[in-house]
Amino acid sequence: MTRDKYVIEILEGQQMTAGSKAKEDIVRFLVNDGFSKISFQAPKNKLRRLIFGKFYWKNFLKDVKNESIIIYQYPAYSRIMGDYFIEASKKKCITKIMVIHDLDSFRIYKDSPKDIKRELKFCNEFDVVVCHNDTMKKWLLSNGCTSQIISLNIFDYHEVIPVKDNKTEASIVFAGNLSKSEFISKIECKTPINLYGVYPKSHYKDNVMYQGAFDPSDLGNHLNGKYGLVWDGNSTDSCTGMTGEYMRINNPHKTSLYLTMGIPVIIWKEAALADFIVKNKLGIALRNLNHIDKELSKITEEQYLEFKKNSIDISKKLREGYFIKKAVRDALDLLN
């Protein structure tokens, strides 16, 4: 039996950050792969969500056939609306595939067994869960996830701006929320660093230059550097704090931004995504950012050109949605 396939688009409306781009891209790629898009505008008022949430989802799913397949991107706006979605989908015998964007059990509620249990219980309502990588998969399984799990490996990234040809400029780019990137003010290096994003500090060291904040659709036009930096937290010795530790399990979306623009990556050695970068020769992994000048000096021109070529090659896959399409097709195979 051929079943209808849908991907939910939850409208939130963010600007000047990449907060919603990953979800928007997945909708775009899956629509191109045969899914139908259904857009859902959740009520902003918390009381309305609580009182009328069931009605919203019932009305939203009224035209979806019984036993259809739905892709649900998580997290999605509010816990209570997520619970109401599960309730409504069960009544229509919908097969549910979750795509995880953020796992708050590890990021925010790491020391709260109650919240971890609640989030994992929600994951277990889905037939298949698509998580970031094998490290996240292992964590989910060890903490009670009983759904079937597929690893994405890396987020795709829709882009139409041509790749960058920065083969000679010895500089680094960093894009993100600069207010939570305390490490930038502490880096001891001479290599120029170009910053992009919101909430910059008023002063950085002389080799660190703020370039501005841009809409995700335009950011690629402004990135200028030989490497893209993937680091987080408040230390240069290691990725620390809530956001830094989170790199042990997640796929930072900025990694995909850099590679989509053909820019090789510098990443924390203990990040979950470091193995993917090193194995595919897409850049280097470091334990300490203060060693950056020394480590970059070891890279020969031949090695860099290999990093560059591989970054351009994987850019083609990321721009086409290769990884999410493969993960979802693998999920569908598990359901057959």
UniProtKB/TrEMBL annotation:
**Listed Gene3D superfamilies:** Glycogen Phosphorylase B
| Keywords from the named record | Transferase
Q: Which organism is it from?
A: Enterococcus eurekensis
Q: What is this protein called?
A: Beta-1,6-galactofuranosyltransferase
- Write down the InterPro entries for this protein, in alphabetical order: Gtf3_C, Gtf3_N
Tell me which domain of life the UniProt entry assigns to the organism this sequence originates from. Answer: Bacteria
Q: Which residues cross the membrane?
A: none
Q: Which residues form the Glucosyltransferase 3-like N-terminal domain?
A: 5-154
User: Which stretches make up the Glucosyltransferase 3-like C-terminal domain?
Assistant: 172-331
UniProt-listed Pfam families: Gtf3_C, Gtf3_N
